Amino acid sequence: MARLVLKFGGTSVADLDRIRNVARHVKREVDAGHEVAVVVSAMAGETNKLVELCRQAAPMHDAREYDAVVASGEQVTSGLLSIVLQEMGVNARSWQGWQIALHTDGAHGAARIAEIDGERLIERLQQGQVAVVAGFQGLAPDNRISTLGRGGSDTSAVAIAAAIRADRCDIYTDVDGVYTTDPRIVHSARRLNRVAFEEMLEMASLGAKVLQVRSVEMAMVHGVRTFVRSSFDDPDAPQTGEGNLPPGTLICDEDEIVEQQVVTGIAFSKDEAQISIRDVADKPGVAHAVFGPLADAHINVDMIVQNISPDGNKTDITFTVPESDYDRAMKVIENRREEIGFGAIEGARNVVKVSVIGIGMRSHAGIAAQCFRGLAEKGINIRAITTSEIKISVLIDSAYSELAVRTLHSLYGLDG
Ligand code: ADP
Ligand code: ASP
Ligand code: MG
Question: Which reaction is recorded as catalysed by this protein (predicted)?
Fold first, then answer.
């Protein structure tokens, strides 16, 4: 007997038929004698609709009221799944974030989980009840509903798994695992059987939105074995794969991975914008004058390139910010024109960041050179580069994004 958390994403609960299908997955685990907590997302498209309604009501709305609105999608699915499970003879009960209680900080709209009362949930499970928890939502210190940022149900699931000391957290979605790159973009993408926490963290933060970044952080910190699988499988098919599981991807410790590849995957993010400041004085304190005010405005700067001026006089600084912060960032810099002292400011929104990820890079040289050569051969210009021990990211024109991802995917031998 195991204790499991099963999380179902939006497409998996898109309508009543899909919810009935989810209920069969839940029932299978209950019938096998496991203790089961379920976490659900809102029906596909529902959260987008609610977000848009808030925007139409007032573009600059109160974040607490935004949370009151957008958290409602998960309330509906947790109730509906409980009704369907009860109808199938399963002892199920829905739980909202505030009822568990899943406590968060006060950052409405993008709250972080602070504490979960796992013991009360465990008690329920031990009484033979299936707890159907509304994902994405929690209770803020002001005693109001909070939400965890888009894709946050993954984080609810992993956090609950950690709090109830679950044996595994199964993330059911519309693909049967984590692939070498987004399978909807590159058809030759391959499913990975195992991915190390650290690699998954890079993949998710560099654009592979199959898991919310914070859910991977949480899984890594608490050692939650996380299994990504499809809810579109036949719920009653024999579970015959490794560990009696169907095809899927286990996110686990690095030492559990036997076949180590140099490059594990390619991720890409279109949520990027580039800003270049020309003719900045090349003297101490300039970088601080530029990036200090951006930090004060809570704008995350990612890639930074600063040239060394030939005459030690003037230089250029280029950096990237999330596309959604582009206008604000431009304004922050413009407002500091006197203080920073620069010639011109230029920006580009039509850029994409493509990243090559793999823990094997730590012990292999030449991976970056291979990437640059591959892109050059296709005539793709690189605007900026950043690297870490286990990843290389390049910023390129968005017109080339698919070509770049496909090229790198083949280049590192990832095609299936
Ligand atoms: P859910 O609604 O179940 O949370 P998401 O849409 O958030 O599902 O995540 C699943 C999607 O993630 C897939 O449909 C796929 O297009 C996308 N995706 C992006 N990168 C990857 C990857 N490397 N492996 C698998 N899926 C990926
Ligand atoms: N429903 C929320 C969203 O669409 C949370 C989630 O699905 O994970 O972002
Ligand atoms: Mg998701």
Answer: L-aspartate + ATP = 4-phospho-L-aspartate + ADP
Asked whether 39 and 135 are in contact (CB, 8 A), the reply is yes
pLDDT > 80? residue 276: yes
pTM (whole model) above 0.90: yes
Is 7 annotated as contributing to ligand binding? yes
In 83-156, at which residue ranges do the beta strands (DSSP E only) sit? 92-95, 102-104, 113-116, 130-134, 137-139, 145-147
Q: In the numeric block, which tokens belong to residue 363? A: 């012990």
| 347 marked as part of a ligand binding site | no
* Residue from 43, 53, 76, 150 to probe ligand 2 pocket by mutation (most atoms less than 8 Å from CB): 150
How many angstroms is it from 57 CA to the middle of ligand 2?
21
Q: Is 228 helix (H, G, I), strand (E, B) or coil?
A: strand
Give, for ligand 1, the residue of 174, 210, 357, 402 to mutate: max count of ligand atoms closer than 8 Å to Cβ.
210
Question: How much is the mean pLDDT over the chain?
Answer: 95
388 CA distance to ligand 1 middle (Å): 24
* Closest-lying ligand 2 atom to the alpha carbon of residue 156: 8
Q: Does residue 57 sit in the same domain as residue 183?
A: yes
Number of structural domains in the chain: 2
- Report the separation in Å between the CA atom of 8 and the middle of ligand 3, taken as the mean of its atom positions: 9
Q: How far is the CA of 153 from the centre of ligand 3 (A)?
A: 7
For a mutational test of ligand 2's pocket, the pick from 40, 41, 48, 169, i.e. the residue with the most ligand atoms closer than 8 A to its C-beta, is 41
Residue 268 labelled as part of a binding site:
no
Which domain covers residue 327, as residue numbers?
A: 265-411
Q: What is the signed CA dihedral for 97, 98, 103, 107, rounded to 10 degrees? A: 80
Q: Tell whether 154 is covered by a domain.
A: yes
Q: How confident is the model at residue 268 (pLDDT cuts 50, 70, 90)?
A: very high
101 prior amide bond cis, ω within 30: yes
The tens digit of pLDDT for each residue in 303-340 reads 999 887 777 788 999 999 999 999 999 999 999 999 99
Last residue of a domain, one of 211, 236, 255: 255
> For residue 141, is pLDDT > 80?
yes
Q: What is the CATH number of the domain that holds 148?
A: 3.40.1160.10
What CATH number corresponds to the domain at position 317?
Answer: 3.30.2130.10
* Other Cβ atoms within 10 Å of 75 Cβ, number: 17
On whether the CB atoms of residues 64 and 143 are closer than 8 A, the answer is no
238 lies in the same domain as 313:
no
- Distances from the Cα of 161 to the Cαs of 38, 235, 344, in angstroms? 10, 22, 51
